[in-house]
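Input record (one chain):
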Amino acid sequence: MIRNLNRICQLDPKATLKVFFWEILHSIFVAAPSGIVLIIVWELFSEHPNTTKIWTVVGVMAVMLVLQFFIAAKSMVQTNIWVYGLSTKLRITLGNRLRKFSLGYFKQKNPGEVAAIVLQDVANFEGIFGHSVGNLAAAVFGTTVLSVFLVIYDWRLALCLLAALPITYLFLLAANYLVSRLGNKQIAARNTVGANFLEYVQGIRHLKSYALIGKKHTGLEQTLKDLCQKSIRMEAVPGPFIVTAFIVFEITFLAMVALGLYYLNGNLITIPVLISFLILGYHLYHPLKVVMVDYLSLRYMNESLKRIIEMLDAPAMASGTAKLPEKFDICFKDVSFGYLNKPTVQNLSFHIPEKSMLALVGHSGSGKSTIAALIARFWDVNSGKIEIGGVPIKDIPQEQFYQLISEVFQDVYLFDDSIYNNIKIGNPEATESEIIDAAEKAQVLSFAWELPKGLHARVGEGGNKLSGGQKQRISIARALLKDAPIVLLDEATASLDPENEIFIQQAIQELVKSKTVVVIAHKLATIMRADNILVLENGEIAERGTHAQLLNKNGIYRKMWDIQQQSNGWKV
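The corresponding structure, as predicted from the sequence alone:
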C-alpha cells in the first residue's frame, strides 16, 4: 500500500516521518497512563502505602493528559494537512495525465469508470487513509507500550495474551484475500452503474418519449441491484473472519485469566500482578480490533490506488520539443487510422495550402470527422504523418500545438457560467473590449442584450438555458477570440433554422478570414467557394477538386449535389 502510495504521490520523506512521529507520540501518550496507573495499584497493595508517591503519580498522569491534548491536536492537524495535500497532488497529477491522453483512451473506457477513478477512488484514499493513520500508529506502538509493561510484570501471562496475534493474523489474511477479490467486482459494478446512470440522464428525453423511465428502464434497474448485491457481499463475506478474530482475542483473554488464577493459587504471582493483567490485558486488544476493521477499508483503498496507478501508467500522446511552425499549411502523408482496430481512413495524402479552405464531403462513416479529429490531434495516426508548416504535429509540444487550432462543431458544450466567461475561455488573457468585439462579430450581442444580465447571464449546465443557435454563436465567439491560424468547422449550421443559419454564416465569415480552414460539409451549397473539396468514400479519397470540377466529373459529388437540389423543393 505504501509502495503504491509513494509511486503515485512521491512521498516527501521528511513530511511523512513528521506525521508518523506525531501519531506515534500520540499513541504512546494514550497507552502510557494505563501502565502508569499500575504503580498506584502496586502501592495500594503494599503493607504501608506511600500516599505521597500515589499523588505524585496522579500529578504525572494529569500533566500527561494535558500534553496529550496538545499532541492529539498537533497530530490531527499534521495528518490532515499531509493526507489532503497528497490527495490534492494526486488529483492534479491525474488531471495533468488525462489531458495528455488521446480521445481513444476515453473511447475504450467505460465513461463511468474514468469518473469513478478521478472522483471516488481518490475520495476513498482521502477518507480512509486520513482516518486510519492514527489507528495504525495506536495499533503498532500503543500495543507495543502496553506489551512492554505486561512483560515486565510477568512474561508468561504476557505471552499467553500475545499468542492471539499470529492466530488472528491468519483470519486477517483470509479477509484480505476476500476483500481483494470481491472489491474488484464491487468496483466494476459501481463503474457500470455510473455509466448506465449517465446514459439514462443524457437520454431521458428519448426514454420519456417511449415510456421507458423508472422501473421500465430495466438496464439501470438491474445494474443497481447488481451493485447492491456485490456491496453487501463485500461487507458480509469477509466480516465473519474479523468477528472470529475478535472472538479469538476474547478467548485468549479468558485463557490468560484462568492461567493467572492458577499461578495465584500456586503462589507463583501476586494479586497486584493479576490485577495489572486484568486491567491492561483487556486494553491490549482494543487498538488491534480498531485497526482490523480499518484494515479491510485500507485493503479496499489499495484497490483504488491500483486503479489510479493503472490510469497513470496508460500510454499518453507523445509530446515533442520542436518549435512552432512559421507557416500553417497542412499536409497528410499516407495517413491511416482506425478506432479500436477498425480501419476508418486509409493511405490518405493531400495538402491544404496556408489561408485556403478545404471541404470534406461524403456519406456518414466515410471519415470526414476522423480527418478533422486527426488534424486537431485528438488521436494519433496509426501510420503515416501529419505536418503543419512542414513540422510533424507529434513533434510540437501539446500545450503549444493546441494554440494553433480553433474548432467549431455541431455539438457545443458550455460551462455553467456566464456568456462572458464562456467566451473568455478562447483567450483567458483577453481584455473586456476584445471579448465584446468577438461577441459582436459572432452575432452574440443580438440575443445577449435581451437577457436580464446581458453578457453576464448564466447559460446553465451545458448551456441548457440557450438555444442551439445561441450556443453555436458563443462557440464561434470563443474561436474568434482565440484567433488561431487554423480553423476546423464541422458544419455548424447543419441542424439550425434558417434565421439562425444566417447569423451563424455571418459569424463564420468573420472567423475564417485569413485562416487555413477545414470544413466538414453536409450542405454542399455552403462550400461552393472552397479552394479544394475532398469526396470521401470508405475512408479513402474518391474524388477531389473544386465545386465546378467535381460537378463536371459526374461522380459521387454530382449525385450528392443533384439529390440535395431536388430535396430543396420538397414540402411536407
